[in-house]
Amino acid sequence: MPPSPKLTSPENPDIPESQEVPRAKLWKKRVMLLVQLIVVALVVWGIWHNVDKAIDQVQQQNFSFQKLRWPWIFAAGLLYLLGSFPMSLFWIRLMRAMHQKPTTYSAIRAFFIGHLGKYVPGKALVVVLRTSLVQGENLKRSVVATAVFAETLTMVSVGAVYAAILISLWFSDRQLLLWLAIGIALAASFVTLPPVFRTIVLTLKVSKINPEIERNLAGLNYPVMAWGWGANLFGWTLLGSSLFAVMASIPDADSHLPSFMQMFPLLAATVCLAMVAGFITPIPGGMGIREFVIMEMMAPVFGPVVAVVSAVLLRISWLLAELALAIILYGIPASAPTTDNTSSEIASSEEDPAQNPA
């Protein structure tokens, strides 16, 4: 009986097909490893650039780090992470409303590790990190990325509205900052209206990547967005408390820090507007923009030196908290990924009551 003919690769007839497939997989692994190394290098560079510039700003004020009450710096970082947690839950809720089934731990892990992407120019790496790290049953990356944008825009919208209300009630003399907050609040809030957001996504021709995107978007309705507003309001309140912890760490600020309740409107408005203004710029980490807003808001009360130091300490405490948590979460991997970009499986209306648009 004659031997069976060997199957060969159409690209290279001299190489058996059984050898060509493993080689293709090997090259794919090498490319993915190279991409991961580039991403890590960009994140490390972005973080180092931000820390180095922040420390330089403090040194220019002739301020000594030895004066600081370090437990308060630790508390500031912890409050920042706690304030971000409700926002991560909203991202999960958005994905599930759009018929995705991410695992809770992998989504929270992806959310916080993805935070480091904002220190890279353009901030697009945030979306890349989140969509690549989140895991679950039959996830579509196009829907996961859409949820990232919806969550981020809602965070910006709530922060800007929060800042506009506080500034208009207590600091109406800061006209420039007030109109900045109002402008961002109106623009971001309009974009996050469910019908408007759906129209924008469909206009961007996402349906070419995912033909079922319109059906996915049907789950993004007013009750879901209202839940997100509540979660973000709670989160922004904790972020404002984080700035109070930073101020409490600076001895020179004691005389101007009578009580938490008296200072909270100023601190919350400052954090909200500073972060929102930083987010809408392509500058990595909003470097310079956040510091400008904090100085404009804080200097009339605490003086220019304390204002600059507080802005820098807020950045450092938040960055180190993000980095520490990202390292911990990265070291605790999620279960094996089951993401499927081509799956058309969608949860039924009985399993997901949030699918009917308002």
UniProtKB/TrEMBL annotation:
Which coarse location class describes where this protein primarily resides? Answer: membrane
Record flagged with keyword Cell membrane: yes
GO CC entries: plasma membrane
Query: Which Pfam family, just one, is annotated for this protein?
Result: LPG_synthase_TM
Keywords in alphabetical order:
Cell membrane, Membrane, Transmembrane, Transmembrane helix
Which cell locations does it reside in? Cell membrane
Topology relative to the lipid bilayer, per the entry, is: Multi-pass membrane protein
Q: Does the keyword Transmembrane helix apply?
A: yes
Q: Which residues cross the membrane?
A: 31-51, 71-92, 148-171, 177-204, 224-248, 260-280, 301-332
Identify this protein by name: Lysylphosphatidylglycerol synthetase family protein
Instruction: Say which species the protein is native to.
Output: Blastopirellula marina
